[in-house]
Amino acid sequence: MDLERVQRLLERFPPRLSAGLFRALKRLPPVAQKIEGEYAGVIGRLGEELGIGTDLPATTRLPAAGRTPEEVLAALEGLRAREEDRWKAGFASGAVYHGDTGHVDFLNRAYAIQSQSNPLHADLWPGTVRLEAEIVAMTARMLNGETAVGTVTSGGTESILLAMKAYRDHARRQRRITRPEMVVPQTAHAAFDKAAEYFGIVPVKVPVDAGFRADPAATAAAITRRTVVVVASAPSFPHGTIDPVAELAAIAAEHGVGVHVDACLGGFLLPWAERLGYPVPPFDFRVPGVTSMSADTHKYGYAAKGTSVVLYRDRELRRCQYFTATDWPGGLYSSPTFAGSRPGGLSAACWAAMVSTGEAGYTEATRRILETATVIKQGIPDIPGLRVLGDPLWVIAIASDGPDIYRVMEEMSQRGWSLNGLQHPPAVHLAVTLRHTTPGVADRFLSDLRGSVEAASHEGAGRRSAPIYGLASSFPVRAVVGDLLERYLDRLYDL
Hints:
Blueprint: H1 3-10, H2 15-26, H3 29-50, H4 69-88, H5 101-113, H6 126-142, E1 149-153, H7 156-175, E2 181-185, H8 191-199, E3 202-206, H9 216-222, E4 227-233, H10 245-254, E5 258-262, H11 270-275, E6 290-295, E7 308-312, H12 315-319, E8 323-325, E9 333-335, H13 344-379, E10 386-388, E11 395-400, H14 405-414, E12 420-422, E13 427-431, H15 441-458, H16 467-472, H17 478-492
Parallel strand pairs: 2-3, 2-4, 4-5, 5-6
Antiparallel strand pairs: 1-7, 6-7, 8-9, 10-11, 11-13, 12-13
């Protein structure tokens, strides 16, 4: 029995029942063997499409004698040379948000200066701790949180996880809630699902409107006495639209519940977009009911990868994210985030990026990005069959009323582009960065997109882009897609 036959069988049943039937079928050895074989074929093709290092010599055990520094650096330079052309030329959606050689060299120097520092040991590196405090303070004031507090984290996912843990523990302490729920728009980042799984919080998903913004009425109906937080995005990762934060916060406040605004993607761009006159609804600490925010310094803050900021309106909530151990034989232990030891070099590079860019630099970068995004948005409807979802500022989701959008994505990949595949509905998106503001890149994107639509229209049922997305868009059992994703992660570590 292959996956196609399994699909036809399970389509006869409701999703929850079909998931259970699928798990039962997988316990039958002949069926399991056949399905695993098909999984292997899909993952093998995906590995070939992504070019996962199959032609590189593998180091699977420590060398008997260490290689020379020159040999090691040459190997790393070779990896860089293989991979940097696409993102440097502006072929990637998001991923690298600045990328200018001078800026990268500057951040590398800042990292090197503090490469040995570790904020966990505040007695040895009080200066690095001070840099982190300044990063938090600058971010808070940028987002109109004059008295807001926070911490530096390793990225947006950790910022979100820490905030959700803080809300869970705060509700446990103050309201004795033992079965916490969080009200989350369907378009919220997957990190909220990860937090739900890690911390035992029930995610109550609410629908979005035709513009892909969270529905306030549905949010109000979803809040219960077990709700510990309401989530909003500014903007959402899939469609680049900003949820109605002020409305959601007012509803949450009526129930005595706080609101976390996920501004990981927009926190370092929306303040300057507003200054430039673009339509930016209230989304930050100016909204009374907003009690926490996350903003990624390593995206449009132009820091090196591996830093973000989580902010709270007050210290009481932040304290619920901390960990302390008072009876450990190793001494008194406390850490503000999930990590114990933290790379002080990354915090130094983040601080360097922020203070060297300044308000004028962020405003100018935002101007260039939004002007480029406008050119792309205006050009997409001129391509037959394509349309922009919602009304985004710079994260542009594209759907197709003509050829399969995943086949369009495949054709764009053949032309060198790395786009983000979306689902519910099927779409792809381009997160515009400074890499795309180079003259000619926007025109090249639109030209390649037109050519990709034409090729996808003429090729019938040929190649399929990102087979996981193709399967996810048509298969009713999410367990199959989950199986494939687990095997894809396995593949990344195979040599």
